[in-house]
Amino acid sequence: MRPTGAELGYARVSTAEQDPALQLDALTAAGCGRVWVEKASGARQDRPELAALLDYARAGDTVVVWRLDRLGRSLRHLLELVDDLQRRGLGLRSLAEQLDTTSPGGRLVFQVFGALAEFERELIRERTRAGLAAARARGRVGGRPALVTPAKLATARRILDGGGTAGEAAAAIGVSRATLYRAMAASAPAGR
Description:
Elements: E1 7-13, H1 21-29, E2 34-39, H2 48-56, E3 62-65, H3 75-87, E4 91-94, E5 99-100, H4 104-137, H5 150-161, H6 166-173, H7 177-187
Helix pairs in contact: 3-4, 5-6, 6-7
């Protein structure tokens, strides 16, 4: 059984042509007894080496990265990873940014990051709502344009009234039968 409290290194380069030597040297110098090397874009959801590291790690261990951008592709993704590490009882240390979530100061910095990310998300939501309200006030309705316009619906009704099938009417206006049925039901007078 291995002792807990190990420093576990994670290095990532975006392409197979890039060399992780700089990261490996820094992680080894920082005392990492074992280092997992990923050769994949940070935007990829599936990172087998990171998954292997997390599977190996035990409560009390610290994941060490050369820079935070080697671990997370965005602040939001990084915060999710740090939250997951904390739930597992793991720390995170970044050498370049000199952050260490095993210390009170490091945890505070990440909590500030989290608060800023939440603030940014709320601002985006608020701006989106305000933009939609302004567009509605100018008469613009959001969402995708309707597939079945009043003119297309009139064409479909003429085909149906002339003895054509729903499939023929739908094909003539370029929609599925289900879409045609929904459009007809939505345009039908109430109580009909």
